[in-house]
Input
Amino acid sequence: MDRRTLLKSLGVAGAGGAIVTGTGAFTSVEASRNVSVTVEGDANAYLSLDDTGNDNSEYLNTNSAGELEIDLTGDNSTSGGGSGVNADAVTVIEDLFEVRNQGTQEVEVTVTPLTFVDTDGANTLAVLAVPDGSFPTSTLSTGSAETFSLVIDEFSPTDADVSIDSEINFLAEATE
Output
């Protein structure tokens, strides 16, 4: 084989290899895609917050934005006529609400704070959100739920006005 034939063969092989592998580099790309988002109330969202379907649902309200609210005040009179928790007593409301994973991935749910406290001297009101399963976080596979109960401890040796008006936060993070 002469030198010219060898150089031509190497040149053709090199050019063919460059065409086959390419460089993969580009200067810019612009692409448009559609984005669709629907906002749902708490019961229909990917992380559902809803009542458990028992008689205790009277202590829950859904506001105009579809958000679940716990209401143990005089503004929420139950069908039995009650309008608040007893003074100097521990009140337990079992299976009040549930947090359900309606998304596509397993998530770890953290609820904060789990305890709310208001004090006025010797008077104390404490509310504790208690998950039925793991504590303080729950791992929820797709379609599974964690049920929460409330424990309210009101201690008032004197007639004082203690109350709680706060927010409870739910954080769900994918485990993988």
User: Anything to note?
Assistant: The two ends are 60 Å apart (CA to CA).
